[in-house]
Amino acid sequence: MWFYSIETILCAAALFFFFWSLKKRENTRALESLASFWGALALAGAVFSLGLRGVFFNGSYQMDGFSQFVKLVLAAGFFIALVISKNLEDIEEKIRPEYYLFLTTASLGMVAMVSAGDLITLYTSLELSSYSLYILIPLRKKDSASVEASMKYLLTGVAASGVMIYGFSLLFGLTQTADLTGIAMKLPELVRLHVFWVAFFLSLAGFLFKLSLFPLHAWAPDVYEGGNTQIVGFISTVSKMAGLAVLIRLVMLLGPDQKLLEGIWIVIALVSMTLGNLAALVQSDMKRMLAYSSIAQAGYLLIGVICGNEKGLAASLFYGTVYVFMNFGAFFVASVISREGRNVSLSDFHGLSSRSPLLALTLMLSLFSLAGVPPLAGFTGKWFLFSAASMSGYKALAFAAIINSVISLYYYLRIIKEAYASPVPGVEAGPLRLGLEGRIFCYMLIVFLSVAGFFPGVLMPLVTQSVAVFFGV
Amino acid sequence: MMDLNLLHISVWANFAAFFLITFLPKNRVKLPPAVALLFSGAGAAASAVLLVRRFGGEMLEWKFPWLTWNSAQVNLGYYLDDLSLVMLTSVCLISFLIQLYSVWYMNEDADKKRFFATITFFTWAMISFVVSVNLFASYLFWELIGLASYLLIGFWHERPAPRRAAIKAFVMTRFGDLGFLAAVILLISHVHNLDIPFLNSQAAALLGPGELLLVIVLLFFGVMGKSAQFPLHTWLPDAMEGPTPVSALIHSATMVAAGVYLLVRLFPMIEVSQGGMHYILFIGAFTSVLAACLALTECDMKRILAYSTVSQLGFMVMAVGSGTWHGGMFHLITHAFFKSMLFLLSGYFIFVAHHSNSIFDMAALPLKEKSKWMLVLLWIGALALSGLFPFSGFMSKESIFGYLLETRQYPVYGIALFISFLTAYYTTRMAFIVSKNGSGPGAGDKRDSPLRGQSLELRVALNLPVTVLGILTVAGVWVFLPWHKEFFHIHTDWHAREWMNLGVTSALVLAGIGTSFFYFGRKSFSEKGWPALIPGLDFLISKKFFMDDFWNAVMEKIVKGFSRLSVWSDAHIINAAVNHVGLACVRSGRAVAELQAGEVQRYILVALLVIVSIIFYLLTR
User: Fold this and answer.
1) Which chain A residues contact residue B589 at CB under 8 A?
2) Is residue A59 pLDDT above 60, yes or no?
3) Nearest to B607 among A194, A215, A278 (CB)
4) Closest CA to B92 of B297, B430, B333, B387
């Protein structure tokens, strides 16, 4: 059973890229195709291991419905990242194998993270993914900004890890166990202690960082701006999804007692949303704008966690899944438009609708979906989130989130306006040509966003089933 | 299972065509018609097979849940009983024939891609509306039909008239649709289930009589818009600015029929409300007479046909309101065939008359030499529309008359007879004048075929559809009679009453034709006929009974007054507020972004401070 699971495949892929990087072969095209192949294999592995259940290594690694579904989404994101990592103009050819290697190890870390059953596994897998990403950011060639961004990423990450590790040590000291289920068993005596709540909250710092939630959000704009577009897309989607999954798992350990943290969560969600959306209004660099937008989106994702019930978690997971796809759509278009891998500003979108109608459509649908325009998947996801919030008694929060998504519409529409309504540029910007994979990706994305939005009944049962593990079903 | 697959094919074939055509490269001009014909032909064939296999059999229901509200659920799916089956087949067949005709008609047009994409999209929406199992889905498709019609009427958007007509049609039908939407909302909140079979069997019992009447009046508001009933009928004559195949498809055979079809579809629910039925009957009768009068002196061939469409739709609505949905539906089907043929013929005659719509310009042409077959077909269509034996229109009108007599609704019977007389009169007036066979200016060489230089395919594309429709008009009802008579409730055992009815109606039709011959059939003919002799009538007709002025006044005074008020408040209150809110947002955005100065030590410091304050919060609460 285990040999076809996604973990095995990612390990094999990592080894493969490692040995390829040792040989320093210059055959980039073959490497690109092989990378896509590994991505597809990982996705297939995730599909096949969707039904896999079990507890391994004395409970430090567990596969349940939740982890397997999240892995499927992570694998899809990994696959997309590999498919759109063609013609990486801003990464030197000789280090491309390393690029794929670290992308793979980052994914491996995230996959392990969502299955982690104790604090040690959680920490190591988190760091495996984080360190891979720290290395990926400065791979961009001849760009001091990317090195600076990487340093910021690393320092903030390390700070967050430090806080988290401190929380872990407190937890361990309180409970004498690193096992998550063990901690959960001791809860009744713990919830009365103030220090437990401090420990628990500190333990979440690493995942706030992953999700780029306030107060650990500040790295995002600089890192997004400095990093290579594909990697940034990966960080803002797959990494976030993994962070969300672990956050859900940890918070659900508390059971009904998690309501005691709701005040903090609400503040974090509101500040993240408002701050992200407001700051995104004034950005002119596409990636920076998307960075702020992703801070705001993380705020939306938190709403379902605040609700804490089955409906809320399902809504969060649904929105997270959809978010992976729609955000990747926006980053993909940015990566195609960018000239020689440079950063994309708003004016680069001029006349996109005539340069490549398909790309313009993909961009429009992705952004509309991010903004929550019906009948796209993003709208349906938001609908689930906000209705879950108002049904669980958080009407004001839902209202604030709705106001926020109205604000966000402005900056998403600005990009669409540039793409559709601006004058056609001169000769220097000829038609954009998309490769076959690019076109297939666009079509798949368009179909996914409309189908998941129009027929949420296709995806929703999967999501509901996977969060059911937290409610003893 | 096979039937379901056939149904899938007939519903989705046109959508597939639309989808493919949209993605065809722009420079392949021959492909869009080919794709459209191939797919809609397949759809029509599938629907025909379905008709043969299923007609008279049990109904087919296939659905899945789509949306769920608190207690209400919306399903998507098909509901195929004999009624929707008949309608489905007619729509598929007529739309295929008209798409074939469009190959000829749109031959010179540069933007075939857009045309065929829109027309297949329209056909898909119409078919989906017909077989939809749920009223909410029906409403969605109803709106899509409206959208497609807007796009098609305004197809030649370079010219101002089609643009105006398209907007007028869209706004007026949308206005009616509001009623439909309100009815849907009302039903969903009171009945919780919008499946059509459920509505038909349960809704009347679940709603109080007052609510039921309200639902019917609101629903009928939508019907007034789509089926061009008084007072929302004025958009239809103007919609003739669209390409002629569009007029034939949308404004005679399918879209405008949607309203009547909706009434028939929900007949078991509507029937319960006596008041609702009277309301429908009254509006239908009034529309029918009014539109027939408007057609009396019209000179534009397409407008004559348009008014006659409004009048005939009113006739059907009247029939439904009087209680015979069979008669209304039967007339809907026969009318669809001969009226679309008449429209297609008008497209041909307009082409021959150098793009003039005037029947007097056509009268000046030597059509007898040039287009004998087309004239024969024109007369077949005209006589069918008049309701003369043995054409199809006769059968369907007869079934309505027979019912009215049987149920002793004599006033309605009288009105129907009057309409029948007017119809025979104005229709044959058009036919008499068009076949005058003059040799006026611009007639050209008599032996010159108007189709000179056109290839064989184009000639087939022109002749085949009209001929098929002509044959169906003459022979269709009789060939299929043993087969459909039960469904349409046609009597075949005739007694004195039926014979008397036949005598009276035929006499009136013949009187109409005779009057028309008296004024227009002979060598010297007048332009307007007897309506000119009645003081005031001619004036009223030329003013279109002031309905356009009425709506203009409504638009000018009430709507525009309101919109001026809205503009003012928008500029001074809302806009100002929005601007300030927006500016405030942008300013605070700038402030927030400036916090992001790029110094990582500050980021971490802020983060840690926040975390520490959270710790304090946790420790002190």
Assistant:
1) 278-282
2) yes
3) A215
4) B333
Q: Are the beta carbons of A221 and B596 separated by less than 8 Å?
A: yes
The gap from C-alpha A137 to its chain's centroid, in whole angstroms, comes to 16
**Least confident range of B16-20, B24-28, B263-267:** B24-28
Q: Is the pLDDT of residue A105 over 90?
A: yes
Q: In chain A, which residues have their Cβ closer than 8 Å to the Cβ of B615?
A: 198, 201-202
φ/ψ of A217, rounded to 5, equals -105, -15
The partner residue sitting opposite B589, judged by closest CB among A151, A215, A282, is A282
- Cα diameter, chain B: 108
Residue B470 is predicted with a pLDDT of 84
User: pLDDT (tens digit, 9 = 90+) per residue, A429-445?
Assistant: 677 778 888 888 899 99
Residue A219 near chain B (CB below 8 Å):
yes
Domain range list for chain A: 257-473
Answer yes or no: do A279 and B603 touch at CB < 8 A.
no
Question: Which among B130, B133, B122, B276 is positioned nearest to B212, based on CA atoms?
Answer: B276
User: DSSP letter at A235?
Assistant: I
Q: Residue A255, SS3?
A: helix
Q: Which of B97, B511, B278 is nearest to B105 (CA)?
A: B97
Q: Which of residues 42-71 of B touch A (CB under 8 A)?
A: 65-66
CA–CA separation, A37 and A17 (whole Å): 12
Closest alpha carbon within chain B to A153:
B600
Largest CA distance in chain A: 72
A142 pLDDT more than 80: no
Interface contact flag, B589 A264, Cβ < 8 Å: no
The encoded tokens of residue B183 equal: 């009815």
CB pairs under 8 A between A and B: 74
B600 touches A at CB < 8 Å: yes
- As a whole number, mean pLDDT of residues B389-407 equals 81
Contact A211, A301 (CB under 8 A): yes
- Residue A299's Cβ-side half-sphere holds a number of Cα atoms within 13 Å equal to 31
Return d(Cα B610, Cα B85) in angstroms, integer. 68
As beta bridge partners, residue B409 has none
Residues paired with residue A140 on neighbouring β-strands, in sequence order: A91
Query: Strand B60-68 vs strand B73-80: parallel, antiparallel, or unpaired?
Result: antiparallel
Q: Is A207 exposed, middle or buried (0-12, 13-18, 19+ CB in 10 A)?
A: buried
